[in-house]
Amino acid sequence: MASKTVARACFLGRRSFSGCLRAQSTGAQSSPYSAPETAIAKHKPSTLKEIYAKYKNGTPISVVTAHDYISGKWADAAPSCDAVLIGDSLAMVAVGYPTTLEIPFDEFYYHCASVCRAVKSKYIIADLPYGSFESSVEKCIESSMRLMKLGKICSIKIEGAYEHEESISRLIKLGIPVTGHIGLKPQRFNGLEGFRVQGKTVDSALQILKEALFLQETGISLLVLEGIPHEIASYITTKLSIPTIGIGAGNGTSGQVLVQADLLGMHTGRGPKFVKRYEDLYGKGVAAIEKYAQEVSASAFPDNAVHTYPMKTKVLEEFLEQAEKI
């Protein structure tokens, strides 16, 4: 049955049958949604060694989030982007939850798998979402290993410091690189009186510094600094021998990360102060859908000369002749 379907598709598309069989055997490569071989640079996935090479050279590291297959493909196709973060922010920008706290681990895992199928050439970091690791060291290891078994994830990101010392240490001993996250911790916004900048007082800034030094001593590979004054982020960066990735922390960190939906303008909200919008995909997307709908209403789309599959006149005549007999 499959061969008949392929043969028919080949006939309609004016392709040789042998050519279609080759396309069929390559699976996803035959999809109209697959990028041409030359569209994405062919090179091995970024490694922690490559990330550290940029860090030691003083070249800022660029990280962007991805939340599904398409956003993963976009990030992967950007040659200058170093790493992809599958952040729990996808709970809000991709799934529609009001905060990051609501997303179940299995739902988050589904999105991780989608991104991993798309990304071929970047260092991938994955969050542990709220509720998937806090209750015990064993729970943390179980959740982390499920993500690592996807085969593409390079590091697990954990929010917090002292309270997760044993979990972080165990993961590292098991060969799982850990990325830390301090400053503003979205998973704990209730205890922080909302999404507020951290480190604005002497005591608060010192606490963040101590957490950074502690996490480095514990053995983490990278450290995300979120929502803190740029002076504090810069100072902490100078005191560490591991790369810091800033978000809302100024340009004195070792690198930057932004939520892809924010930087591409995929939604109507302005977003946090630290976000720079590089595109307005929401506005352009709505405009494109509206244009499509108008063309459908006006019978302007599809154009039979462009968007359909031709049929030989003789075959059509024979069909019509036999159809009239039914």
Automatic annotation (TrEMBL):
GO MF terms held by the record: 3-methyl-2-oxobutanoate hydroxymethyltransferase activity; magnesium ion binding
Domain of life from the UniProt record: Eukaryota
InterPro entries documented for this protein: Pantoate_hydroxy_MeTrfase, Pyrv/PenolPyrv_kinase-like_dom, Pyrv_kinase-like_dom_sf
One of the GO BP terms on file: pantothenate biosynthetic process
Catalytic activity: (6R)-5,10-methylene-5,6,7,8-tetrahydrofolate + 3-methyl-2-oxobutanoate + H2O = 2-dehydropantoate + (6S)-5,6,7,8-tetrahydrofolate
Family annotation (Pfam families): Pantoate_transf (PF02548)
Any one GO CC term of the record: mitochondrion
Pathway per the UniProt entry: Cofactor biosynthesis; (R)-pantothenate biosynthesis; (R)-pantoate from 3-methyl-2-oxobutanoate: step 1/2
Enzyme Commission number: 2.1.2.11
Keywords: Pantothenate biosynthesis, Transferase
Family: Belongs to the PanB family.
Assembly, per entry: Homotetramer.
Job description of the protein: Catalyzes the reversible reaction in which hydroxymethyl group from 5,10-methylenetetrahydrofolate is transferred onto alpha-ketoisovalerate to form ketopantoate.
NCBIfam families found in the cross-reference section: panB, PRK00311.1
Name listed for the protein in its UniProt record: 3-methyl-2-oxobutanoate hydroxymethyltransferase
